[in-house]
Amino acid sequence: MAIVVNLDVMLAKRKMRSKELAAAIGLSEQNVSLLKSGKVKGMRFETLEKICAVLDCQPGDILEYRPDLPAAGEGAA
């Protein structure tokens, strides 16, 4: 299972910098950077709600599920 974070895409669409988002939602720039890179294991719904409010978007605009691709050698026989 893979959850992809598309926060960088939404920031670009809204022409907003990470620094501005961080200030608006009360997180450090470093934590926003970690969110953007997908290097976090979880996110509070409260944080997701704040991001969606500032970026005027839905959670599905930020988070995407992409099933794992089969490993090499697996798949069609």
UniProtKB/TrEMBL annotation:
PANTHER family listed in its UniProt record: DNA-BINDING PROTEIN, DNA-BINDING PROTEIN-RELATED
Lineage of the organism: Bacteria, Pseudomonadati, Pseudomonadota, Alphaproteobacteria, Hyphomicrobiales
Alphabetical list of SMART domains matching this protein: HTH_XRE
Organism: Chelatococcus albus
Pfam families on file: HTH_26 (PF13443)
Regions crossing the membrane: none
Domain HTH cro/C1-type: 13-62
Name recorded for this polypeptide: Helix-turn-helix transcriptional regulator
Residues making up the signal peptide according to the UniProt record: none
